Amino acid sequence: MKHVIEAVCTGTARPFNGAETSAIMKRPREGRVQVFTDGLAPDEQADRRVHGGPEMALHLYPLDHHDWWRGEIGDHPALDEPGGFGSNLAVRGLTEDMVHIGDRFQLGSAVIEVSQPRQPCWKIEHRFGSKGMVARIVKTGRSGWYFRVIETGEVAAGDSLELITRGASDWSVARVFAALLGGKATGTELSELAELAPLALNWRKKAAAKRA
Length: 212
Prior knowledge:
The chain is an alpha+beta fold. The protein is 25% helix and 28% strand.
């Protein structure tokens, strides 16, 4: 499984909603970009309590979903931007049902691993000026996902994102998202997720809390 990276995107924290700031508006970078344990350099997250860090080092929101959103909310300039949803990597042909927790990919000279789905928040709706987007993400599972960095390196547009090791083959990003945010998990599934080592700790805690 090999996919071309159409753009590598980073952002800076900017005024977003009154006193709030956000770095959701990612812009394509030229040339090679360093991939560190905490993500691309430079790339910012406005609220480090809920964004960024080693378990959310890189975000990928499939470009395939941009066309779907046009049908839902109409045309919007951000849908023409590869980092419109805060994505660091612009890739087509790779969606939540195709990747699994713990899948490892070669990214340029770096190695990265799928760590968790992205939990949608109000900033997406504010970014696009459209209420109800979070509910539609929860309903359809168009969440995107995060990677942790296993080996640091460099990446540039035109490089490949290539699967090198399959992780938890029973647990696609789509299934984890549906189980823990869509409320569709059985007790057995919650127990499995609570013990799924490659899954980010905060998601394992969600599973344990729901199981209790």
